[in-house]
Amino acid sequence: METYTSDEPDTWISQFCTQFGHDYFVEVAPEFIEDDFNLTGLGSIVPYYRQALDLILDMEPETTVDSNDLPLVEHAAELLYGLIHARYILTKQGLHAMAEKYEDTCFGSCPRYYCDNMNFIPIGRFDSPGVETVRLYCPNCNDIYLPNSSRYLNIDGAFFGTSFAGLFMKMFPEINRQVQARTKEQFRLKIFGFKIHETAPCGPRVQWLRATPRNQNQLLELKNCEFSIPEIKDNEDDEGEINGNGNDEDDDEIIKDTERESDGEDDDGDEDEELDDGIVVEDGNGDNVSEMMSIV
Ligand SMILES: [Zn+2]
Question: Which residues cross the membrane (predicted)?
Fold first, then answer.
Protein backbone atom coordinates (compact mmCIF):
# COMPACT_ATOMS: atom_id res chain seq x y z
CA MET A 1 0.00 0.00 0.00
CA GLU A 2 1.13 3.48 -0.78
CA THR A 3 0.00 4.80 2.58
CA TYR A 4 2.12 2.31 4.46
CA THR A 5 5.50 3.53 5.53
CA SER A 6 8.21 1.32 6.95
CA ASP A 7 8.54 3.23 10.23
CA GLU A 8 4.95 2.38 11.13
CA PRO A 9 4.33 -0.89 12.94
CA ASP A 10 2.84 -3.57 10.74
CA THR A 11 -0.86 -3.60 11.45
CA TRP A 12 -3.23 -6.46 10.63
CA ILE A 13 -5.00 -4.19 8.12
CA SER A 14 -1.84 -3.25 6.24
CA GLN A 15 -0.72 -6.88 6.23
CA PHE A 16 -4.10 -7.96 4.86
CA CYS A 17 -4.06 -5.34 2.10
CA THR A 18 -0.55 -6.23 0.97
CA GLN A 19 -1.25 -9.96 0.72
CA PHE A 20 -1.07 -11.54 -2.72
CA GLY A 21 -4.33 -10.91 -4.58
CA HIS A 22 -5.60 -8.31 -2.10
CA ASP A 23 -4.55 -5.28 -4.12
CA TYR A 24 -8.16 -4.25 -4.84
CA PHE A 25 -8.61 -3.46 -1.14
CA VAL A 26 -7.88 -0.09 0.43
CA GLU A 27 -6.83 0.29 4.04
CA VAL A 28 -9.83 1.12 6.17
CA ALA A 29 -9.10 3.83 8.71
CA PRO A 30 -9.09 2.34 12.26
CA GLU A 31 -11.29 5.23 13.45
CA PHE A 32 -13.99 4.04 11.05
CA ILE A 33 -13.87 0.52 12.52
CA GLU A 34 -13.79 1.77 16.10
CA ASP A 35 -17.11 3.55 15.57
CA ASP A 36 -19.73 0.95 16.48
CA PHE A 37 -22.34 2.70 14.36
CA ASN A 38 -20.42 1.72 11.23
CA LEU A 39 -20.53 -1.95 12.22
CA THR A 40 -24.28 -2.13 12.81
CA GLY A 41 -25.66 -5.55 11.93
CA LEU A 42 -22.33 -7.20 11.20
CA GLY A 43 -22.30 -9.05 14.55
CA SER A 44 -25.07 -11.34 13.37
CA ILE A 45 -23.34 -12.17 10.07
CA VAL A 46 -19.76 -12.79 11.18
CA PRO A 47 -18.89 -15.66 13.51
CA TYR A 48 -16.35 -14.98 16.28
CA TYR A 49 -17.28 -11.32 15.79
CA ARG A 50 -15.66 -9.90 18.92
CA GLN A 51 -12.42 -11.85 18.50
CA ALA A 52 -12.30 -11.01 14.79
CA LEU A 53 -12.74 -7.32 15.54
CA ASP A 54 -9.95 -7.41 18.13
CA LEU A 55 -7.69 -9.09 15.59
CA ILE A 56 -8.40 -6.46 12.92
CA LEU A 57 -7.70 -3.63 15.36
CA ASP A 58 -4.58 -5.37 16.77
CA MET A 59 -6.07 -5.35 20.24
CA GLU A 60 -5.42 -7.89 22.93
CA PRO A 61 -8.39 -10.26 22.97
CA GLU A 62 -10.56 -9.95 26.06
CA THR A 63 -10.87 -13.71 26.24
CA THR A 64 -8.06 -15.95 25.10
CA VAL A 65 -8.80 -17.67 21.82
CA ASP A 66 -8.41 -21.42 21.76
CA SER A 67 -5.55 -22.40 19.45
CA ASN A 68 -7.92 -24.68 17.50
CA ASP A 69 -10.18 -21.70 16.83
CA LEU A 70 -7.40 -19.44 15.57
CA PRO A 71 -7.84 -20.29 11.85
CA LEU A 72 -11.59 -19.75 12.23
CA VAL A 73 -11.05 -16.38 13.89
CA GLU A 74 -8.59 -15.40 11.17
CA HIS A 75 -11.14 -16.35 8.51
CA ALA A 76 -13.89 -14.45 10.35
CA ALA A 77 -11.61 -11.40 10.54
CA GLU A 78 -11.16 -11.46 6.75
CA LEU A 79 -14.92 -11.66 6.26
CA LEU A 80 -15.53 -8.88 8.77
CA TYR A 81 -12.87 -6.67 7.20
CA GLY A 82 -14.39 -7.23 3.75
CA LEU A 83 -17.85 -6.22 4.93
CA ILE A 84 -16.48 -3.16 6.73
CA HIS A 85 -14.51 -2.36 3.57
CA ALA A 86 -17.72 -2.36 1.49
CA ARG A 87 -19.14 0.29 3.85
CA TYR A 88 -15.92 2.27 4.10
CA ILE A 89 -15.49 2.75 0.34
CA LEU A 90 -18.87 4.53 0.30
CA THR A 91 -17.49 7.25 2.58
CA LYS A 92 -15.69 10.30 1.24
CA GLN A 93 -12.37 9.05 2.59
CA GLY A 94 -12.91 5.59 1.11
CA LEU A 95 -14.00 6.94 -2.27
CA HIS A 96 -10.82 9.01 -2.49
CA ALA A 97 -8.68 6.03 -1.54
CA MET A 98 -10.35 3.96 -4.26
CA ALA A 99 -9.95 6.82 -6.74
CA GLU A 100 -6.18 6.65 -6.27
CA LYS A 101 -6.26 2.98 -7.14
CA TYR A 102 -8.57 3.65 -10.09
CA GLU A 103 -6.19 6.24 -11.50
CA ASP A 104 -3.28 3.81 -11.11
CA THR A 105 -5.28 1.21 -13.10
CA CYS A 106 -5.08 -1.17 -10.13
CA PHE A 107 -8.35 -2.78 -11.18
CA GLY A 108 -7.28 -3.28 -14.79
CA SER A 109 -8.89 -1.95 -17.93
CA CYS A 110 -11.61 -3.03 -20.34
CA PRO A 111 -10.44 -5.55 -22.97
CA ARG A 112 -13.08 -4.34 -25.47
CA TYR A 113 -11.42 -2.68 -28.47
CA TYR A 114 -13.72 0.35 -28.67
CA CYS A 115 -13.44 0.97 -24.90
CA ASP A 116 -9.82 2.02 -25.45
CA ASN A 117 -8.42 0.79 -22.12
CA MET A 118 -11.17 2.36 -20.01
CA ASN A 119 -10.31 1.71 -16.37
CA PHE A 120 -12.42 -0.80 -14.49
CA ILE A 121 -14.31 -0.17 -11.27
CA PRO A 122 -14.70 -3.17 -8.93
CA ILE A 123 -18.29 -4.12 -8.25
CA GLY A 124 -20.28 -6.82 -6.48
CA ARG A 125 -23.59 -7.96 -7.88
CA PHE A 126 -24.80 -8.91 -4.40
CA ASP A 127 -24.42 -7.34 -0.99
CA SER A 128 -24.56 -10.65 0.84
CA PRO A 129 -21.25 -12.48 1.23
CA GLY A 130 -20.75 -15.93 -0.24
CA VAL A 131 -22.90 -15.42 -3.35
CA GLU A 132 -20.50 -14.29 -6.06
CA THR A 133 -16.93 -13.12 -6.39
CA VAL A 134 -15.92 -9.61 -7.37
CA ARG A 135 -16.64 -8.36 -10.90
CA LEU A 136 -15.21 -5.39 -12.77
CA TYR A 137 -17.46 -2.73 -14.28
CA CYS A 138 -16.57 -0.79 -17.41
CA PRO A 139 -18.33 2.62 -17.46
CA ASN A 140 -17.95 2.89 -21.24
CA CYS A 141 -19.65 -0.31 -22.39
CA ASN A 142 -21.71 -0.72 -19.19
CA ASP A 143 -20.72 -4.34 -18.92
CA ILE A 144 -19.13 -6.34 -16.15
CA TYR A 145 -16.14 -8.61 -16.49
CA LEU A 146 -14.31 -11.25 -14.52
CA PRO A 147 -10.87 -10.23 -13.29
CA ASN A 148 -8.20 -11.45 -15.66
CA SER A 149 -6.26 -13.24 -12.95
CA SER A 150 -7.44 -16.16 -10.83
CA ARG A 151 -5.86 -14.53 -7.80
CA TYR A 152 -8.96 -12.31 -7.52
CA LEU A 153 -11.46 -15.11 -7.90
CA ASN A 154 -11.70 -15.76 -4.16
CA ILE A 155 -12.53 -12.13 -3.34
CA ASP A 156 -16.18 -11.79 -2.45
CA GLY A 157 -18.21 -9.28 -4.47
CA ALA A 158 -19.92 -8.18 -1.25
CA PHE A 159 -16.57 -6.69 -0.13
CA PHE A 160 -17.16 -3.99 -2.76
CA GLY A 161 -20.93 -4.09 -2.92
CA THR A 162 -23.58 -3.05 -5.39
CA SER A 163 -23.60 0.69 -4.60
CA PHE A 164 -19.95 1.55 -4.88
CA ALA A 165 -19.58 1.87 -8.66
CA GLY A 166 -22.63 4.13 -9.01
CA LEU A 167 -21.58 6.36 -6.13
CA PHE A 168 -17.99 6.45 -7.38
CA MET A 169 -19.09 7.73 -10.78
CA LYS A 170 -21.35 10.33 -9.16
CA MET A 171 -18.52 11.47 -6.93
CA PHE A 172 -16.00 11.76 -9.76
CA PRO A 173 -17.69 13.23 -12.86
CA GLU A 174 -14.39 13.09 -14.73
CA ILE A 175 -15.11 9.40 -15.27
CA ASN A 176 -18.13 10.45 -17.30
CA ARG A 177 -15.92 12.82 -19.24
CA GLN A 178 -13.57 9.92 -19.96
CA VAL A 179 -16.57 7.97 -21.23
CA GLN A 180 -17.73 10.91 -23.39
CA ALA A 181 -14.29 11.09 -24.96
CA ARG A 182 -14.55 7.48 -26.05
CA THR A 183 -16.60 6.20 -28.92
CA LYS A 184 -19.83 4.32 -28.36
CA GLU A 185 -19.29 2.59 -31.67
CA GLN A 186 -19.95 -1.09 -31.98
CA PHE A 187 -18.10 -3.25 -34.41
CA ARG A 188 -20.34 -4.14 -37.36
CA LEU A 189 -19.89 -7.11 -39.60
CA LYS A 190 -19.73 -6.59 -43.36
CA ILE A 191 -20.02 -8.90 -46.31
CA PHE A 192 -18.25 -7.71 -49.47
CA GLY A 193 -18.25 -4.22 -48.02
CA PHE A 194 -21.98 -4.14 -47.27
CA LYS A 195 -23.24 -3.92 -43.72
CA ILE A 196 -25.42 -6.83 -42.70
CA HIS A 197 -29.00 -5.69 -42.37
CA GLU A 198 -29.98 -4.73 -38.88
CA THR A 199 -32.79 -7.26 -38.70
CA ALA A 200 -30.56 -10.22 -39.49
CA PRO A 201 -30.05 -12.59 -36.56
CA CYS A 202 -26.35 -11.76 -36.58
CA GLY A 203 -27.00 -8.11 -37.46
CA PRO A 204 -26.65 -5.11 -35.20
CA ARG A 205 -30.33 -4.42 -34.52
CA VAL A 206 -30.99 -7.74 -32.89
CA GLN A 207 -27.71 -7.57 -31.00
CA TRP A 208 -28.70 -4.14 -29.81
CA LEU A 209 -32.19 -5.27 -28.84
CA ARG A 210 -30.69 -8.03 -26.79
CA ALA A 211 -28.65 -5.42 -24.99
CA THR A 212 -31.13 -2.63 -24.38
CA PRO A 213 -34.77 -3.03 -25.36
CA ARG A 214 -36.26 0.35 -24.40
CA ASN A 215 -40.00 -0.21 -24.49
CA GLN A 216 -42.65 -2.89 -24.65
CA ASN A 217 -42.67 -2.93 -28.46
CA GLN A 218 -38.96 -3.62 -28.61
CA LEU A 219 -39.25 -6.26 -25.94
CA LEU A 220 -41.98 -7.89 -28.00
CA GLU A 221 -39.87 -7.62 -31.12
CA LEU A 222 -36.98 -9.28 -29.35
CA LYS A 223 -39.25 -12.03 -28.10
CA ASN A 224 -40.81 -12.59 -31.53
CA CYS A 225 -37.55 -12.76 -33.40
CA GLU A 226 -36.75 -16.02 -31.66
CA PHE A 227 -39.48 -17.64 -33.73
CA SER A 228 -40.05 -15.42 -36.75
CA ILE A 229 -38.80 -12.42 -38.62
CA PRO A 230 -39.91 -9.29 -36.79
CA GLU A 231 -41.67 -6.49 -38.64
CA ILE A 232 -39.93 -3.18 -38.19
CA LYS A 233 -42.41 -0.56 -36.99
CA ASP A 234 -40.29 2.57 -37.24
CA ASN A 235 -39.51 3.78 -40.73
CA GLU A 236 -35.82 4.36 -40.45
CA ASP A 237 -33.91 5.40 -43.52
CA ASP A 238 -31.51 2.59 -44.18
CA GLU A 239 -29.52 4.25 -46.90
CA GLY A 240 -26.24 2.49 -47.29
CA GLU A 241 -27.52 -0.72 -45.73
CA ILE A 242 -27.18 -3.85 -47.73
CA ASN A 243 -29.92 -4.41 -50.25
CA GLY A 244 -29.80 -8.03 -51.22
CA ASN A 245 -27.65 -8.79 -54.22
CA GLY A 246 -28.04 -5.24 -55.50
CA ASN A 247 -30.83 -6.13 -57.91
CA ASP A 248 -34.13 -4.60 -56.86
CA GLU A 249 -36.16 -6.64 -59.32
CA ASP A 250 -35.09 -9.81 -57.60
CA ASP A 251 -36.03 -8.56 -54.17
CA ASP A 252 -39.75 -9.18 -54.39
CA GLU A 253 -39.13 -12.68 -55.60
CA ILE A 254 -36.74 -13.39 -52.76
CA ILE A 255 -39.20 -11.96 -50.27
CA LYS A 256 -41.87 -14.25 -51.65
CA ASP A 257 -39.46 -17.16 -51.29
CA THR A 258 -38.94 -16.23 -47.68
CA GLU A 259 -42.65 -16.01 -47.03
CA ARG A 260 -43.04 -19.43 -48.54
CA GLU A 261 -40.21 -20.74 -46.39
CA SER A 262 -41.68 -19.25 -43.27
CA ASP A 263 -44.86 -21.16 -44.05
CA GLY A 264 -42.97 -24.31 -43.30
CA GLU A 265 -41.79 -25.21 -46.80
CA ASP A 266 -38.17 -24.34 -46.24
CA ASP A 267 -36.79 -27.80 -46.72
CA ASP A 268 -37.97 -28.37 -50.25
CA GLY A 269 -36.18 -25.43 -51.91
CA ASP A 270 -33.44 -26.41 -54.32
CA GLU A 271 -29.81 -25.54 -53.76
CA ASP A 272 -29.74 -22.58 -56.16
CA GLU A 273 -32.40 -20.82 -54.13
CA GLU A 274 -30.44 -21.48 -51.01
CA LEU A 275 -27.38 -19.82 -52.54
CA ASP A 276 -29.40 -16.75 -53.51
CA ASP A 277 -30.70 -16.42 -50.01
CA GLY A 278 -28.16 -15.73 -47.34
CA ILE A 279 -28.35 -11.96 -47.52
CA VAL A 280 -31.00 -9.79 -46.02
CA VAL A 281 -33.18 -7.84 -48.36
CA GLU A 282 -35.58 -5.02 -47.94
CA ASP A 283 -38.10 -3.41 -50.26
CA GLY A 284 -38.07 0.25 -51.23
CA ASN A 285 -40.32 1.43 -48.39
CA GLY A 286 -38.32 -0.21 -45.69
CA ASP A 287 -41.42 -1.51 -43.96
CA ASN A 288 -41.74 -4.94 -45.48
CA VAL A 289 -38.52 -6.44 -44.37
CA SER A 290 -37.45 -9.96 -44.88
CA GLU A 291 -34.28 -11.92 -44.53
CA MET A 292 -32.66 -15.24 -45.26
CA MET A 293 -30.59 -17.22 -42.94
CA SER A 294 -28.72 -19.73 -44.99
CA ILE A 295 -25.24 -18.33 -44.37
CA VAL A 296 -23.84 -20.50 -41.67
ZN1 LIG B 1 -15.79 -1.62 -21.86
Answer: none
Distance 117 CA to ligand 1 centre (A): 8
Q: 138: CA distance to ligand 1 center in Å?
A: 5
Instruction: Report which DSSP code applies to 138.
Output: E
Q: What is the pLDDT of residues 44-99, one digit of tens each?
A: 999 999 999 999 999 887 777 777 888 899 999 999 999 999 999 999 999 999 99
Domain that holds residue 80: 1-88
Whole-number Å distance, alpha carbon 228 to ligand 1 midpoint, is 32
| One domain, residues 197 and 179 | no
Neighbours of ion ligand 1 (CB under 5 A): 110, 112, 115, 138, 140-141
DSSP 150-172: GGGTTSBGGGT-SSHHHHHHHH-
| C-alpha of residue 223 to centroid of ligand 1, in Å | 26
Indicate the number of domains in the chain.
3
Pick from 241, 242, 249, 296: nearest CA to 274: 296
